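hey can u check if this looks right to u? its 233 residues, i copy pasted from the old doc so theres a chance i mangled smth
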Amino acid sequence: MRVMASTLARTETSSRLSVFLWLSIATAMALSWIHAPYPDQMYLQHIPTVAVLIAWPFAIRRFPLSSAALLCLGAFLLLHVLAARYIYSYVPYDLWAQRLFGLSLTERFHFRRNHFDRVVHFSFGLLWVRPVWEVCVRYLRVPRRFAYYTAWEFVLAFSMLYELVEWGLSMALAGPDADAYNGQQGDMWDAQKDMSCALLGATLALIILSVTRRWRAAIGVPPNPATLQKPLL
């Protein structure tokens, strides 16, 4: 009875968190349009955001996730909304750092470009591994150890696919602003570096997930229902 009550409580908490995150992302996207500095290119950046907002209620209802996985997805999408407001290439982190710490990151680290897009690609790898791992384990019945590899491969494959779609959209819809939308900033190896950042983030996420699960097992914490395989119907 205690296990069942705990499971129901976690499910209810995750459901409420899912609604909160959906509303937060939708609100952030709406606010990002206020005095947007690059509205002509910004709508292209929000195509994935709108797609996720439409799919979110149906996907989460069909494949409930743990609160940790939901927070990972929500954090990544909010980061994307922030970056999309400035079409990634012009996120004013130097201005923010100057106001908060009195220094310029570009000058301090001798940057030659705006690196916020690298941060988002790294975050994609870091924050998407946990949700994908849970889906693989619970709903696709992938063995846990192999699910680590599956989640890691998902990040790599999706990163490559995203770069191809981004290139296609920029060529088809952005016209003369293709380079600004793509965020290459004159770097011919931009796509490869973005995928490398995602790879690094995914590798770190796997280490954190593996260590955390071993630590929880060592101290006797019961497994989260979202990480248990769902019985076959």
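The chain has ten helices and no strands.
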